[in-house]
Design brief:
- By secondary structure, the chain is of the alpha/beta class.
- The protein has one domain: TIM Barrel (Alpha-Beta Barrel), CATH 3.20.20.60.
- The chain contains eleven helices and eight strands.
- It has an eight-stranded parallel β-barrel with strand order 1-2-3-4-5-6-7-8, surrounded by eight helices.
- Helix 8 runs parallel beside helix 9.
- The longest helix is centred in the middle third of the chain and has 17 residues.
- The protein is globular.
- The chain binds 3-methyl-2-oxobutanoic acid.
- The site of 3-methyl-2-oxobutanoic acid has 11 residues, from strand 6.
Length: 267
């Protein structure tokens, strides 16, 4: 159990973790009770993901989630958080133009209490505009759940050389546009390692191998709660744990100690 829960983390603390080679732990959170447990255990970053559309609301994709719902869940998490850095997702179609993105991102920061917003894809103009307004941004490349109807399936991205090159280029472009973090979802571990090493900003992997600068999972997947099938890259941390708090502590320590993800959780 991490007892050093007195000082709230800033983006500088998160960036310093990459520089000194300390892995960054992140989990999704959607409510105050879980957020309090994650924070108490010492998880470094909480992500109010639009995955809540699937695991909380029961939809078959993240597309129906609205900005109002994201603000509401971000407020719930924000009230309980003491130390962890707080990121909130911009949901589908809330960043179709830079000015629209700024209006919605402002809601997540001003009303929700988030410290950073995350958006999917190489939306370089939006990222640059948000950063110019003083809004920190986390990019998200690889498998983009909001594009599921274009992709056709939740599958590994960047397997072909051209797709891998596009991911490398997009990652560099997002960093140049001012993104402070990057989530890489469902990409081959070797490619994710290369992208992480090639960027100065921290790269948080999900299904992207152990060499990213940090790891994120959907909380309900790693607690093995829910109706849907758990993705291969997730792990049931309830196995061998006496409580939810123990399972979260086991995840935190496995990320810090580079025991998670193992090769069976990677591509
Ligand atoms: O919405 C979410 O939970 C996410 C993670 C899967 C990274 O974006």
């Amino acid at each position: 159990m991490n007892q050093l829960v007195d000082k709230p983390l800033s983006i500088n603390d998160i960036s310093a973790m990459k520089r000194r080679g300390e892995k960054i732990s992140c989990l999704t959170a959607y409510d105050a009770s879980f957020a309090a447990v994650l924070d108490k255990v010492g998880i470094d970053m909480l992500l109010v993901g639009d995955s809540l559309g699937m695991v909380v609301q029961g939809h078959s994709s993240t597309l129906p989630v609205t900005i109002e719902q994201m603000v509401y869940h971000t407020q719930c998490v924000s009230r309980a958080r003491k130390r962890a850095y707080l990121i909130a997702d911009l949901p589908f179609m809330t960043y179709s133009r830079p000015d629209i993105a700024a209006k919605n991102a402002a809601q997540l920061l001003q009303v929700g209490g988030a410290q950073m917003v995350k958006l999917e894809g190489a939306k370089v103009d939006c990222v640059r505009f948000l950063v110019e307004q003083g809004i920190p941004v986390c990019g998200h490349l690889g498998l983009l759940p909001q594009s599921i109807h274009q992709l056709g399936a939740y599958s590994v991205q960047g397997k072909q050389p051209e797709a891998a090159q596009k991911l490398r280029d997009d990652a560099q472009q997002l960093q140049r546009a001012g993104a402070s973090l990057l989530v890489l979802e469902c990409v081959p571990a070797a490619l994710a390692k290369e992208i992480s090493n090639g960027l100065t900003i921290p790269v948080i992997g999900i299904g992207a191998g152990v060499d990213c600068d940090g790891q994120v999972l959907v909380l309900y997947d790693m607690l093995d709660i829910g109706v849907g099938k758990r993705p291969r890259f997730s792990k049931n941390f309830m196995i061998g744990s006496k409580s939810v708090e123990d399972a979260i502590a086991a995840y935190h320590s496995a990320v810090k100690g580079t025991e998670f993800p193992a090769s069976e959780h990677s591509f």
